[in-house]
Sequence to fold (693 residues):
Amino acid sequence: MASPRESNRAPEDESHAASRRIERLSLHLTPMIPLPGDDSYRMEIVTCAGNSKVGRMDVDMESLSVFMRGKHREIQERVFDYFNSRPELQTPVEISMNDHRELCMKQLIGLVREAGIKPFRFVNEDPGKYFAIMEAVGSVDVSLAIKMGVQFSLWGGSVLNLGTKKHRDKFFDGIDNVDYPGCFAMTELHHGSNVQGLQTTATFDLITDEFIINTPNDGAIKWWIGNAAVHGKFATVFAKLVLPTHGSKKTADMGVHAFIVPIRDLKTHKTLPGIEIHDCGHKVGLNGVDNGALRFRSVRIPRDNLLDRFGQVSRDGKYKSSLPSINKRFAATLGELVGGRVALAYSSASVLKIASTIAIRYSLLRQQFGPPKQAEVSILDYQSQQHKLMPMLASTYAFQFATIQLVEKYTQMKKTHDEELVGDVHALSAGLKAYITSYTAKSLSTCREACGGHGYAAVNRFGTLRNDHDIFQTFEGDNTVLLQQVAAYLLKQYKEKFQGGTLALTWNYLRESMNTYLSQPNPVTARWESADHLRDPKFQLDAFQYRTSRLLQSVAVRLRKHTKTLGGFGAWNRCLNHLLTLAESHIESVILAQFIEAIQRCPNANTQATLKLVCDLYALDRIWNDIGTYRNVDYVAPNKAKAIHKLTEYLCFQVRNVAQELVDAFDLPDHVTRAPIAMQSNAYSQYTQYVGF
Fold:
């Protein structure tokens, strides 16, 4: 039955409504294109297969490619050339777990001993070069990148950063040339994220001058330890340091410390007495990495095997540290291990680069349907495909600049040990690792779906990349836990702001942005809807930062309210989803700020314009995706929201027009992407040859 409103509608109103519906349906096939010099929009038909592009931007490929490569491309080329010259070291599509593990070890040894590329030397001296090598080997096999990270960044990094000169002198060469394959034994069956809750003990024996490493119960078994099941000869074991005392308790718990524990004989490779090693078995992905479980039954190690940079034990059992409390020592220890999070953020962005390249190249080549009696069109000419892949491509660019800046900050931190910078890098690496790995995990499924049935073929890599990358969201800190750390740091900075303290550089925008938030949105700018205004970096960044400040202010008020009745822990749990949204919003602001700065640094005007197009899509797509937040507080008026939507569609179309150039600028040759459907020439020929035609 028609409503009164419908029954009273005039015929011309019905005609107008029908026209509107037809216009909306047509948007599924054709994007909105602005007329030059005019803020209004008109319809433009996309020419089949993209042969004639409306307003197509010319891209200076050489300049863009040089700018995107970064300063360590030479060593990456050495990695590519080595594995390209050794096809027997390339991971086949079908391989058993045991064969994959052995191949992965051969790949690592070949990289170090045959190719002469020694990543361990760059872990502290030049982290940017180390991460560049990791990106290159990850394109060969993600398992290889993780095995390399376990050997050099985790096992090796713990010796470098938690030990002292005696440890470096004894172990450096063996770690460097892979004579001493090692493990990083932190995670336990019952404790992963809560490192301070670890139960493994290291009790000092005053008589023999040794530590006794013990697993007190099944929950304390070290679990998921990379390199443990097959190849590891040593492990850095994190355990509670227990010292004898003369008091009533007889022992004192000095908190979690790190110890070097031999687990296999260097010559025979047999498991040493008191050590139990079990294989964690076949995993969802990363099966080239031999994860194992370790139990210690009164294993004795020399006192010198304590990695004692932050705390020393003398021969008579006295403890000494420049840091006054367990919490301070624990924070310093974990602070030195932040490089793992930096590596995962950087590596995840690299995985997204490979996946988006494969999906976009395929979408440019693949043709389906078209106007009657005309050629079929590229599937990337369909608006729905553009909306799947073009914002993802923009994010790939954004993540590259954000992670490069993170690596630079991390490098500066390693050189200066500046306390403020340490805190900044800790929170920034936690946030970027969590945000980028979560986004990439979702995008890998999107890429697979965007390539239809061919995306399901293992040879086209999406399944392997998705399975190998999935755990990036968990190790080196569960993403939900890491985002809470970011939120906690934001609240600390919020408190500093109102107490008149200085804010760390990354968080400085909060001072001005919070002042803006505490006043009402400007009713004039809320209605500005010209393309020039919406593409202004100041509008975009202000919008991102306003949202973060609004979330920060509101969650601070909620926490204060709920703490009175629920206590600190209960209040935090009540506001947890709000806190996670706050952290993600802040990280998006940081990523956009870095993208804008990268464009400003670019010396070539053409490349600047190309990157500006991509950056505008990154920014406006995210504003549109959260348009409800901006509308709820009248930061954006209804007509401005419509203008943002239309402009976002237009930018998707424009980025599609230069998509080939944008993915080619990543400079990933065919032997790196290795997906037949993405080969730049003779793609279908390559694919049919693979299946045996």
Q: What stands out?
A: The longest strand covers residues 251-262. The two ends are 61 Å apart (CA to CA). The chain has three domains: 61-166, 182-324, 339-668.
